[in-house]
Amino acid sequence: MALQDEKYMLLTTYRKNGTPVPTPVWVADLGDGKVGFYTSSGSGKAKRLAHTAKVTVQPSDARGNVKDGTDAIEATAELVTGDELADITAKIKAKYGFMTKITKFLGTVGGIVKRNRIPYGDRGVVVTLPAD
User: How far apart are CA 95 and CA 26, in angstroms?
Assistant: First the structure.
């Protein structure tokens, strides 16, 4: 199964000191060897992507456990807004449906409880996979 057909992928971003930080994310096919998802501009992954485009991706489950028999793929990622974000959001909503409303609600409640509200899904991430 191709990465874009998976329900989750493990996205590994890198801190400034080179430490890898793996995070499971949803994944939508953007065509032309690209996949994407949305995130918050206040998230750690958005902050890490602001200083380096280097990432690895790999099929995983919701907890970030990689699928047996798969390998990490080195790729590049960029933060996007505007029309590109709108396209990613539409494709994620089409693929994941009602779950997008649940995660937005839980994110809002969590932000209120922690007194640290951050925007929900205000940045898109486009991951460019290497050519086969």
Answer: 9
Cβ atoms of residues 55 and 76 within 8 Å? yes
We report the CATH number of the domain holding residue 123 as: 2.30.110.10
pLDDT by residue (tens digit) across 28-87?
999 999 999 999 888 899 999 999 999 999 999 999 999 999 999 999 999 999 999 999
pTM: 0.87
Residue in 54, 26, 51 with CA at minimum distance from that of residue 38: 26
Nearest to 67 by CA among 130, 127, 20, 7: 7
How many domains in the chain?
Answer: 1
Contact in structure between 60 and 73 (CB atoms under 8 Å): no
